[in-house]
Structure to design on (285 residues):
């Protein structure tokens, strides 16, 4: 198994983990087994893996799923991956930045005979948020099992009035149901990162809140969470020119205190505010 030979493989190919790509290779078979268990894959499942590296997780996925679509940006790792996984005929390796990839077309091309599409990945920590925002745009994907930085994992599942709660929390919870599966020690990786990790599950089961324009809702969230030290009233004035007196009256109507901050409001409350301001002709963006 690849997981048992990580250091030897790197030595053989004269390679190393590149900080540029946030490479930390999983070397704990128990963690890999847990990932597969949580993923609940079948021989009808198409899996997308992001940043497969040497292929430790890729190998486990190939054994459990129908098809594995692996995106690797590092050409050096692609060459190794092609060698380490050559015995599996259900792996497609794509040497491309996941943020630039035509995911919808690739899924249709390579996984059109799969009953479901699941993302299972040890994500590059330095671009976790952009990847999550991109994945949520892909209608074919309904489930993710992801290894992320522990801090990010807690942000994703956090609740209002906590220090972790913010834009990422709201957008993920608006689009899906998220839960923390387990914490993972830095010692389960080579080289060991300076942060702890967490395994999370994301199920895309978005409620129908009746928004007319989700892109505008995301822009609204980005605006009101951009300066966390400021009150919601100040951010509404900065981004939408909403006068303080009008804001005060509106907050009273919602039953909120005048100095409320965005991170104190639930996803539903933020949706209600957005709809009142931007989809009811109160103000225009």
């Amino acid at each position: 198994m690849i997981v048992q030979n990580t250091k030897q493989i790197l030595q053989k190919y004269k390679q190393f983990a590149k900080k540029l790509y946030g490479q930390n290779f999983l070397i704990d078979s128990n963690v890999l087994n847990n990932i597969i268990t949580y993923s609940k894959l079948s021989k009808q499942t198409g899996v997308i893996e992001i940043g497969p590296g040497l292929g430790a997780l890729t190998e486990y996925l190939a054994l459990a799923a129908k098809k594995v679509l692996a995106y690797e940006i590092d050409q050096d790792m692609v060459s190794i991956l092609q060698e380490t996984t050559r015995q599996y005929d259900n792996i497609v390796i794509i040497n491309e930045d996941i943020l630039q990839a035509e995911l919808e077309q690739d899924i249709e091309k390579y996984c059109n005979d799969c009953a479901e599409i699941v993302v299972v990945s040890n994500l590059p920590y330095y671009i976790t948020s952009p990847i999550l925002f991109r994945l949520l745009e892909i209608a074919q994907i309904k489930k993710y099992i992801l290894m992320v930085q522990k801090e990010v994992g807690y942000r994703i599942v956090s609740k209002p009035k906590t220090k972790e709660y913010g834009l990422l929390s709201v957008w993920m919870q608006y689009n899906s149901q998220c839960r923390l599966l387990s914490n993972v020690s830095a010692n389960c990786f080579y080289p060991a990162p300076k942060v702890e990790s967490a395994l999370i599950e994301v199920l895309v089961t978005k409620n129908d809140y009746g928004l007319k324009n989700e892109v505008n809702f995301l822009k609204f969230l980005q605006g009101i969470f951009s300066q966390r030290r400021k009150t919601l009233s100040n951010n509404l004035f900065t981004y939408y020119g909403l006068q303080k007196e009008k804001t005060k009256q509106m907050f009273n109507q919602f039953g909120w205190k005048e100095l409320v901050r965005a991170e104190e409001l639930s996803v539903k409350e933020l949706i209600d505010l957005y709809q009142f301001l931007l989809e009811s002709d109160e103000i225009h963006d």
Residues 2-203 form a domain with the Rossmann fold fold (CATH 3.40.50.150). The longest strand covers residues 141-149. The first helix runs from residue 6 to 12. Strands lie at 25-26, 45-50, 67-71, 91-94, 116-122, 141-149, 177-184, 189-190, 197-203.
